[in-house]
Amino acid sequence: MPKKIILLRGVTPTGQNRIPKMSYLAEILTEAGFKNVETYIQSGNVILETVLSDQAIRKMVHDTILEKIGADLSVIIKRPEQLKMAAQENPFGDGYDDSRVHLVFTNDYLDDGILKKLVQTDFGDEAFCIGNQCLYLYLPRDAKKKRLNTNFLEKKLGISATMRKLSVTNRLSEW
Questions:
Q1: Helix or strand (DSSP H, E) at 159
Q2: Of 74, 57, 47, 54, the residue nearest 172 (C-alpha)
Q3: For residue 4, what is the enclosing H or E element?
Q4: What is the pTM of this model?
């Protein structure tokens, strides 16, 4: 049965989009019919097995979480090999701090014209790159004014997206 990595967008530690316990999330998704459901860290990463289409998975995961927990979260779906390729294609070399590399994932169409404009934009100390599986951000701690983030990219590109650190992406790709 194919493995899918579910990346939830908008999980917060408190408030409406809070998921009380990842073990409960795994429990309700198992009850919904998914197989071998596991979670990784508290920020909304789920690994599961199913033969359903991505569209059916997205709806089922979203609706189950909304009904059982009350959180209205975007659901991004990837395969482990897509995450592995995204991590391997990291455009930031040895001169960069890996802990400051972030990968932005979406299931939506990305407009090439808007992407080309973003690549040419000066983000100061921050950096933006386009990959085959995701978008890459380098967000140094000492950046004067943080401009690059998921909300900014969602508005500019008209997409739903979620961001993960390189280390998290590497770990999820190993499932």
A1: none
A2: 47
A3: strand 3-9
A4: 0.92
